[in-house]
Amino acid sequence: MKFTSPGPALFTQRRYGLDGREIGVYKFRSMTVTEDGAQVTQASRSDSRITPVGRVLRRLSLDELPQLFNVLQGSMSLVGPRPHAVAHNELYASSSRATCSVTRFCPGSPAWPQVSGCRGETANLEDMEARVRFDLDYLRHWTPMLDFKILLLTAIKMFRDEQAY
């Protein structure tokens, strides 16, 4: 954050929203960088770019709390398919058509992949495809009860998710 490294406390990162339109997703800055270019390096478990305060924010998923502003603006849903950085979508789009199909829907925070074990770095195509499979499963089987379940699991996993870093 601001008092542990230079830079803004809040930043926006380009992601794909409804119908594949680019949106700026708000986040608390948890790293020494605010990458949003053609290449975005994902955080890893022992990433030296993560600030001390950022480590706590990321561990408890509080770095994503500003996304409530996106929900209020209408560019995101409270729950829905998880949007990835534009650079990551572009990287995997040529290998996976399913990645593109998820961007037709309004993204959400949190999402079914996050509470189902597909969290953290997507180090390879299989990791991204697993996330997309959960997103597609969510879209196929959506109910208000599923959204409630995701919100409840998100609250529980805030304190017990080993994949949050």
Q: What fraction of the residues are assigned to beta strands by DSSP? A: 5-15%
Number of strands: 2
Task: Provide a count of the helices.
Answer: 7
Q: What share of residues is helical?
A: 25-40%
Rg over CA atoms, rounded to whole Å, is 15 Å
Describe this structure in words.
This protein is mainly alpha-helical and 165 residues long. It has seven helices and two strands; from the N terminus they run E-E-H-H-H-H-H-H-H. Strand 1 and strand 2 form a beta hairpin. It is globular, with a radius of gyration of 15 Å.
Would you summarize the structure shown here?
With about 160 residues, the chain is mainly alpha-helical. It contains seven helices and two strands. It starts with 9 loop residues before the first strand and ends in an 8-residue tail after the last helix.
Topology:
Layout: E1 10-16, E2 22-28, H1 52-59, H2 67-73, H3 86-93, H4 97-102, H5 112-115, H6 125-140, H7 144-157
Antiparallel strand pairs: 1-2
List keywords for this structure.
single chain; 165 residues; mainly alpha; globular
